[in-house]
Amino acid sequence: MPAGRYAPSPSGDLHLGNLRTAVLAWLFARSTGRELVLRVDDLDRVRAGAAERQLADLRALGLDWDGPVLWQSSRVDAHRAAVRTLVEAGRTFECFCTRREIQEAPTAPHHPPGSYPGTCRDLTPAQREARRAERPAAVRLRSDVEDWTVHDLLRGDVTGPVDDFVLQRGDGVTAYNLTVVVDDAHQGVDQVVRGDDLLPSTPRQAYLATLLGLAVPQYAHVPLALNPAGARLAKRDGVVTRTELVERGIDVLTLIGSSLGFHGASVQEWLADFDPARLPHEPWIVHPPAAG
Ligand code: GLU
Question: Which residues, 6+ apart, have CB-to-CB distance to 220 below 8 Å?
């Protein structure tokens, strides 16, 4: 059964923007006869108890999902196996650069700022040997394209850079761009709905899926929630989590629904006339009540 998904990182409580994206992932999946699967991306940035609170918040909004929650940390062997497949196919190289070295290296003329400058791509075996003694290597993709085009249901065709991005960090932890591709495929995900801050990573992920022989999912990147200053909404902006809002007597579903132009008092009612074509294309500016 094809599926959509929601994949929060358990780094803290979900705020209004996260909750709104979850609602949209649910609506996209359910309105197209898909299952919705849930994955906790707990390889990094884990705060004790956060995942459980996130799931409780989703349920409180009336969202449901299919099958057990997948904890990404249970998939480490599969992530490593995918890296191995690429290493054995000659699609990778070892990289010894520090973040600082990358920032300070001149970027290749046609590469956007911040993309990997290629320092370790063509080390000789002797150079590699010498650098291995200094620090553990990260594994980077040896990309053979400069960019890649994906189709997004809300944004149309989007072309973005594909540099030699990291697959596995020097400390052995596999990178988000790899794990997301491997786990989405494992969970049968063929529809990815998420915040449009992840749109720039999407060409890399689609390219990687192609290299691994995995189907590229359908994408819909939805506008983020911003604070009044135009920055991505964050906890420090005030009262923004479900628990905090409920304590103030504010109904979270009403708030999210009105930001999307939905009428009706439940996600089930929204589902009945959900139409992606009518979704706002602009970010949602939130004016949260002050905390404390
Ligand atoms: N876990 C990631 C995050 O919360 C999102 C992964 C994704 O939707 O691709 O930022």
Answer: 24, 28, 152, 153, 154, 191, 192, 193, 276
Decide: 41 in ligand 1 pocket, CB within 6 A: yes
Determine the residue of 6, 9, 177, 232 to mutate for testing ligand 1's pocket, defined as the one with the most ligand atoms within 8 A of the Cβ atom: 9
Q: Is the CB of 34 under 6 A from ligand 1?
A: no
- Of 142, 176, 210, which marks where a domain is finished? 176
- Catalytic, 268? Answer no
Q: Tell me the per-residue pLDDT of 143-182, one tens digit each, with 9 for 90 and over.
A: 999 999 999 999 999 999 999 999 999 999 999 999 999 9
**Domain membership flag for residue 230:** yes
Residue 292, pLDDT > 80, answer no
Pocket lining: 180 vs ligand 1, CB cutoff 6 Å: yes
Nearest Cα neighbor of 196 from 247, 158, 237 is 158
Return all residues near 191 (Cβ < 8 A) that are at least 6 apart. Answer: 2, 3, 4, 5, 28, 29, 32, 34, 217, 218, 219, 220
From ligand 1's centre to the CA of 40, what distance in Å? 9
Domain region containing 16: 3-68+223-285
- pLDDT of 187 reads 98
Q: 93 with 171, same domain?
A: yes
Say whether both 147 and 85 belong to one domain. Answer: yes
Split at pLDDT 50, 70, 90, the class of 110 is low
Same domain, 64 and 90: no
Catalytic residue chosen out of the listed positions 131, 169, 235, 260: 235
- Kindly tell me if the per-residue pLDDT of 84 is higher than 90: yes
pLDDT at 111: 67
Q: What is the pLDDT of residue 285?
A: 97
Q: Kindly state whether residue 208 falls inside one of the protein's structural domains.
A: no
